[in-house]
Each structure stands twice: as C-alpha cells, then as structure tokens.
Amino acid sequence: MDYSSTVRIISGCFVKPQHVSEQSKQPFSLTTWDLVMLSVHYIQKGLLYTKPPPWDYCEQYLDQQCLGRLATKIEQNPKSHSVFVDCKNSPGAKFIHAAVDLSVSDIVSPTYVPLVVQSFFEHDRAINYDGHTRPLLSIQVTELVDGVFIGCSMNHAIADEQRDTKIKISRSPMLERWFPEGNNSPLLTLPFTHQNEFITRLETSHFLERIFYFSTKSITKLKERANTESNTTKISSFQSLSAFVWRSITRARHKSMYGFVNDWLRSPFVYQCSPHLYSRSVIIGSSPRFNMYGNEFGLGKALTFRSGYGNKFDGKVSLYPGREGKGSVDIEICLPSFSMNALESDEEFMAAVS
Its domain of life (predicted)? Predict the structure, then answer.
C-alpha cells in the first residue's frame, strides 16, 4: 500500500554555521570523480528509532556544518562548463520536521519496503546536478505515532556514503582536495555549454524492494562452502556472499533471460544507455563496513535502516551491516515482482536467509 500522501511537513528551516573560516569562503573545486557523479541521484539513507528526539538537537549540531551550493561557470570559446561549490551564496543545510500517522510496525512489518519510506527523504528523484538549486544536505525528521525516522539526503558529487553513515556533522569541513598531476587549475572543465549535453535523468520501472538478513553463522557457512568448492582459502566473506546473491538472482531471472535471447533473435539490437541496459545485471553498492548503527543522536541504537528512491533499479543490491553486528549483513534487493517471487521461492537462497 502507498502511504506517501499521509506525510505532513510541519516545519522547515535552513541552518548555517555560526563561525565560518576564511578558507571555507573560497570556491570548492570538484575532482574528476566528483564530476562524473553529476547525473547520479542524491544519497538517501535513514534510521528508524522507537522514540522521538528533542527537535532542536539536530539543528544544534547542523549549525556547525559548513555547506554550500553548486555553481557553474560557462565559457563559449572554447566551450567549457565548470561546476564547483559556492560556499558563500547558499542558504545552508535544510532541516525538516514532518509527521505521519503510521507506527514503527507499519514500516518494519511488511515483507516489502512500503513506498511511504520514499517520502521520508528530501530531494526525491533529485540528481546531483540539482545541487545548483537544492541544498547539498537535507535532514528530514519524520515523527511516527510511536517512533521517529531520521532521513539524510546528501549530494553524492561532494560526499560518499562513508561520510553519510558516519554523519559526525559537528566536525569542520575537509577542504583539501587532490587533483590529477599536471593540471594547471583546480577548476576542472567539461567540454559543454549546456547541461542538456551531459545530464540525464533515469526513471526506473516499478520493482519490489525487500531486505534479507544474513546472520554471521550463515555467512560463515557460505564462505566455507565457497572455499571448499574452489579448493582455496582466499575467498572472503564478502566475496562468497556477493557471489551467492548474484547466482540466486540469476536463477530467479531464468525465464526472463531466455525470453531476452528469444526476443533478440527475432529482432536484434545494440545496447544504448538506458534503464534496459541494467535489467539483466546485478550491481552491488554500499558496504557492510559503513557503520550505519554507529550514529549517535542520543536515542540509543536504531531499530533498523531504510533508504530512499535514489540510485535504485532492477538488479540493484545494497549491503549494510546487520543490527546485531559481529559480521552479520542486511541485503537490500530491488527486483520486479516476477523475479522477486522466484527468488523467494529459491530454497537454497532462503535457507541462507535468517
């Protein structure tokens, strides 16, 4: 069921640092690996707690975080498009207080992640280039009947998921960057004059999203099996778990894979960049090394995590640390209904799920 229309925005504000260093007032240049992310969605991760926080708590610590806004410098001759962070002309980070008439059970009990979770995050479907007009960081605190969800939306061109999951937002910003050797200017340029020449927005078809829990014991068994079958001792827990998930999803797609082959034989085609390019892939993101449950808001340990719409598609797999720790892993898998149903009917796969 889609509960998204029930989320109510109660208030919102922008938060800026109380004290700004001279260094942080300078333009913040983006590196090569920052610029390649401009068409990618914002990172959207959040934690669910059983009791609401004091509402000024997050604001108090956000006001020590320096955040800017993307800016662009365009030249016509030669054609160039330079994107950087303008730390001076920005309203700051955004803080939102929302509410929804749902309980913690409404979020964690369903087999599949309910669509309402997408509305627990600011910047729904926004890509990183939208940082020209949107905050680079937004925190939305959504009050449930018996709990609270803290959702973080962060521009992926200026921060990675390790920063997002640590979220020690009271630290000063890191302004020292590395650039390729021989580069005469830290302001890297793209050979374009308009965003339409290099920015695309990916809209994915409907899929189901489910979180599968793998205990430490289960992962140990998968590792032992993988090493035994390969007559080695070098296969890691991560490698064995990733391979197991990949093989299981591939089996679940058996009918669609054969259908693809038959369709191609009837009407051959060559791949173009589109959502269809990934429909038979398994792409793994995030990491169980990201300490999701290490965030401290004065609320105790979170019940669980959830993520937003960003960067999800058929075959996207995200790995997170299990709540119990000790090497356990939660795996978030996105598949269309027929593939998800086949995966859930796979006895070998489900036997490993705790």
Answer: Eukaryota
Angle (CA) 243-34-317 rounded to 5° is 20
CA-CA-CA-CA torsion for 335, 124, 302, 63, nearest 10 degrees? Answer: 160
The residue-averaged pLDDT of 245-255 equals: 90
Dist. CA 204–CA 300, nearest whole Å = 36
Tell me which H or E stretch contains 29.
Answer: strand 28-29
The answer to whether the 4-197 and 208-352 domains have the same CATH topology is yes
Model pLDDT for residues 22-62, shown as the tens digit of each residue: 777 777 788 888 888 888 899 999 999 987 655 554 555 44
**What is the domain partition of the chain in residue ranges?**
4-197, 208-352
* Residue among 153, 188, 231, 143 nearest 30 (CA): 188
Joined together, the tokens standing for residue 234 give: 């070098």
Class for the domain spanning 4-197:
alpha beta
DSSP letters for 98-137: EE-S--HHHHHSSSS--GGGGGGSSSTT-BGGGGGTS-SE
> How many CA atoms does the CB half-sphere of 217 hold within 13 Å?
3
Measured between alpha carbons, how far is residue 305 from residues 2, 47, 108, 165, 266 in Å?
19, 4, 10, 11, 44
Residue 118 backbone phi and psi in degrees, to 5: -60, -30
Q: Which residue has the tokens 């059970």?
A: 105
Four-way CATH pick for 208-352: 3.30.110.30, 3.30.559.10, 3.90.1310.10, 3.40.30.10: 3.30.559.10
Q: Using CB atoms within 10 Å of the CB of residue 215, give its burial: 0 to 12 exposed, 13 to 18 middle, 19+ buried.
A: middle
